[in-house]
Amino acid sequence: MKLSINRIILTVIYLLTLLFLIFIISTNMLPLKYLIGIFVVLLLFDVGLFFLLFKKKKKKNIIGYILGGILVVILFALFYYLNITLGFFKGFGTNKYKEENYLVLVLQDSSFQELTDITNIGYTSNELSNINEALNKLNEEITIENKEFENNALLFDSLINEEIDSVLIEESSMTLIYEQNEDYEGKFRTLYTINIKTEIEITKDADVTNQTFSVYISGIDSYGSIATVSRSDVNIIATINPKTKQILLISAPRDYYVQLRGTTGYKDKLTHAGLYGVETSVGTLEDLLDTDINYYFRVNFSSLEKIVDALGGVDVYSKYSFTSSKATGGTYYFSKGYNHMNGKQALSFSRERKALPGGDRARGINQQAVIDGVIRKATSPAIITGYSKILNSLTGTFQTNMSDSDIQKLIKMQLNDMASWNITSYNLDGTDGSEYTYSYPTQELYVMNPLEETVTEAQNLIDRVIAGELLESSYDKEASDVNDPVYVEPKPDPEPEEPSLTGNLPVISFDETPLVIIKGQKIDLLSDVTVTDKEDGILIPTVTIVDTSILVEGTHIITYSVTDSDNNTVTKNRTLIVKLDLNGDGIPDDVVTPSE
Fold first, then answer.
1. Which residues of 269-307 are buried (b: 16+ CB within 10 A; e: fewer)?
2. Which of 122, 365, 470, 513 has CB 3.0 to 4.6 Å from 164, enough for a Cys bridge?
3. Which one of 169-178, 277-286, 384-393 scores highest in mean pLDDT?
4. Pair 253, 373 in one domain
5. Do residues 298 and 437 both lie within one domain?
6. How far apart (Å, rounded) are the C-alpha atoms in residues 80 and 69?
7. Considering 89, 118, 136, which residue would you say is the last residue of a domain?
8. What is the largest CA-CA distance in the chain?
């Protein structure tokens, strides 16, 4: 009877061991050397149990029962963790749809209470909009007259003037309209919402362990459902060479003025591409950088907080010491150097721009630094301690078209070599401007016009990564001297300052006749400039151009600027004409070629 019980126990343990081995092999995440090690350990365990359970000595039988029980507990625990892992990775690549919410808006004080109360509806349309599908769904509910308008300005004027009963507009686009028209706040209310889900079709698979591939990382400016279309405030292209362990992060400013893929006419801000779905953002960046983007990884405010907290916080390098503002979700003082951040702090760090030199440009650098911190933590042994908690926390926090098999291959590769990754960051740059945009064609908005040399350099860096070149790292391999961000009590909004009297401002004086020089001639641009201050103090004006030898022939505008003790700043422009001296007689020629 005792031998029969021992045979049953041993059979159950052997079956569990066999099932576990089949299960772990099927995950395709462990390298062969780990599988062999696990097989050898389990084999020795099972052989040892056989001899212990079939010995006639009672003490050895008891030891066998204890070891068998321990092995069963271990196997069930491993089954549990593997099941969590597979369940998590099975979600990759399945949430490939975008979600749009079309609002039926009426005037706040109108008498309309039900959808059936309205008789007509106005809308605008463009190449990227799903407005026609929304109208079709609406027409399934009620019989209604549809009126198309040329732009949203005319559309909302007609609603305000009660020429139409209602308007149909996508929720994210309405947010943009509210931002540009503050007087619209409180004038409208939502009568009905139409939800439209559209499959995202981006199919450019790559062999992620053997060839270079690119991932578009998009951070959208919203909380809640990750599938909802929204402006993309974070636009980073990660080009990854798995053989050289090189990751290149290229950040494109949110206000970059680019042609959205699939559109004609006005260009638009890159952030507005997100209003039409991640596929529009991907296509637009592919056109800008002349490269293929294989995958996307999309997160929102909620996602970033959960990811960082699930990892137990991340160490992030800050180029500057600064205090974030309330608008970022928290007021924290970040020290120059590495800072250990939780989710809220990392989000605040990623969103801040006004407190940074360079504004949105510097914000892009900070966003790349957060990604570096996440990658470093996610590929470190520290992730093992909170393994199940991390996977449970991350479920539903992001959207990607990368498949579970691709992720499993990457994990298997990382476990096999446990290599550290070299991360290099680069930021596209541009010049400030105001332009009409595709998404808002009736009013000029702030944009950043691309500097072509930075676009060309980004393309060059991508080519170098593809060619197998290892670039200079932008971050330390290990974070050192890590600081903790300090919470700062937000200051109350300051009282509006009374404007300075014009008569009290400094005055910049000089001969306003255009200053004519010969190309390459050295000249002291401050020699004939005087400044009168209200307190007769001495102010030294600054000037935007200090070396005229670099100027091309033509007409240039020089700007002088002075600031007094009350922080009043005054500027004054001066015309500088640069001419050639073709005869070499020291006299400027009369012909002037206009230049910027």
1. bbbbbbbbbbbbbbbbbbebbebebbbbbbbbbbbbbbb
2. 122
3. 277-286
4. yes
5. yes
6. 17
7. 89
8. 121
Q: Is 80 exceeded by the pLDDT of residue 92?
A: no
Same domain for 85 and 109, yes or no, is no
| 376-416 per-position pLDDT tens digit | 888 777 666 566 667 766 777 788 888 888 888 888 898 88
For residue 341, give both structure tokens. Answer: 């951040």
* 380 closest CA partner among 243, 477, 244: 477
Let me know whether 219 and 188 are in one domain.
no
For residue range 531-558, list pLDDT tens digits in order.
Answer: 776 555 555 555 544 455 556 777 777 7
Question: What is the C-alpha separation between 580 and 523, in angstroms, rounded?
Answer: 15
Instruction: Tell me how crowded residue 448 is: count the other CB atoms within 10 A of its CB.
Output: 24
Closest CA to 128 of 164, 96, 98, 154: 98
* Residue 516, both tokens: 């004519």
CA 486 → CA 322, 326, 342, 531, 560, distances in Å?
A: 11, 14, 12, 43, 40
Which SS3 state, helix, strand or coil, does residue 100 take?
A: strand
Token pair of 150 as six digits: 């040329």
Tell me if 317 is assigned to some domain. yes
Please give the structure tokens belonging to residue 473. Answer: 């790292």
CA 523 – CA 145 distance, rounded (Å): 70
Same domain membership, residue 424 and residue 512: no
Cβ-based burial of 389 (10 A; exposed 0-12, middle 13-18, buried ≥19): middle
Structural domain total, the chain: 4
CA dihedral 210, 212, 213, 215 (to 10 degrees): 120
CB 61 within 8 A of CB 53: yes
Domain enclosing residue 334, as ranges: 213-484
Terminal Cα distance for the chain, rounded: 100
- 567 assigned to some structural domain: yes
